[in-house]
Predict the 3D structure of the following.
Amino acid sequence: MGYKETYEAWLANPYFDEATKDELKAIAGDDKEIKERFYADLEFGTAGLRGIIGAGTNRMNIYTVRKATQGLANYIISQKGQEKGVAIAFDSRRMSPEFADEAACCLAANGIKAYVFESLRPTPELSFAVRELGCISGINITASHNPPEYNGYKVYWEDGAQITPPHDTGIMDEVKAVTDYATVKTMDKEAAIRAGLYQQIGQAVDDRYMEELKKNVLHPNCIKKASKDLRIVYTPLHGTGNIPVRRILKELGFENVFVVPEQELPDGEFPTVSYPNPEAAEAFELALKLAKEKDADLVLATDPDADRLGVYVKDTKSGEYICLTGNMSGSFLAEYEIGQKKALEGSLPEDGELIKTIVTTNLVDAMAKYYGIKVTECLTGFKWIGDQIASLEAAGEVDRFIFGFEESYGYLAGPYVRDKDAVISSMLICEMAAYYRSIGSSIKERLEEIYAEYGRYLNVVDSFEFPGLTGMDKMAGIMQELRDNPPAAIGERKVVSVTDYKNTEATGLPSANVLTYGLDNGATVVVRPSGTEPKIKTYFTTLGKDLAEAQAIKDELAAALAPLFK
């Protein structure tokens, strides 16, 4: 059936509600829009669903959510896990509560109990809830940091991590097998509650989550000492971080936390930012303005589902606020965790392990070598870090895990969850600031010391967008050309090694559409399509005697690569 026929079928089918049909009638005659909405089913990928909200097979709506949930339910039943139930959380986006209830009612109709948070919660708490409640799976309704017209549906397995093999492909196959929307099971919410198949959760899980966060505090006395002086500005960017971040900081004793008032309350329209992503400078405009008014030492921003953390620190000499990239914050947190644990405990766990992705800075490799711990690399996406922690736990060696992070502002200390956690990251950044103040230093000063000790690494990500119907085809063609005809040089730098992550025998990792080029000057370039956006990303790692030299090398490489992505 072609897209026009599918469009007409939705209009004629009594299964679809009148509001959906009215929305579709409004685009009658707009062939391009009809095609965008119906040329394909919204793809259920390895992370679940993510798409624009609206009517159609290629949109996020109650019907595509039901279809995905029916596939998940079928898989859970095939694994005989229906008695364990499924935890469900949602963020502040448009339709998030509604999508959460639709998923819960579909599960209930399949005899699977849903544990649904009473109100919005951060992504890491969903991961925690899956483990805390002993669930077989978890669903998180969020599109993370995407623009307001998007929403998403992330699936977790019983280890608390986003789905990985074999469960990811198993669930995807079951979702694809659901071809008739009218066959999807659902039931009335009140009936599900009466049947004991829909249960609200909230405060008890919140409290346990906070308990686990506090176990990772290393210097409570330093926090107490600095609590009255350290000044922190925080913005949740209209998302889920507002309550948990403020709660953990308050309970630890930080007294001067100033929340950006315009961005404090949940709002799925994200009215103060076009792109609610702490990686974007725009996201910090209001926070930096408030920071200058309050003379803040730290400026923190969490994305809408509170799994990513962006940080600015005040330079005590110039008074300017310095942006910490994901690699900088991650390296700094890692060094703090490793160094302070060794100082406090006298030694580190035997075969202690720091886990990072293949596109994350090599600075931590130098750190790990100094401290005598192991670095484990995994594919891009925090689910692979979660999967590695789960492997350690299965082997009875979870105590070996010290820290995990990825360059895209995602960090984790402690094995209590299996996803990146901006709540604990906010806590640790503030603790670090308190600690370094207690010894007459600062985060900025310590960062410069780290570069002096280990080398001036620069990590920069460039993105090339390929929107529209032909975007994915263009991206696939570029990746194939790079794979078939690898460059002998990038600019003036000779390529000395090529790693193709589709070659699982060579990498020892699951297959991934990623290419890494090692250059004769020690620099690396990683090329990969985004898993969530129509972009190809290039990750540059360069090392120089100072920032200027590292930047000049990066600029040379980027200029040489740019023509390949047109």
The two ends are 34 Å apart (CA to CA). The longest helix spans residues 326-345. The chain has three domains: 40-208, 222-454, 456-565. The CA atoms of residues 235 and 301 lie 5 Å apart.
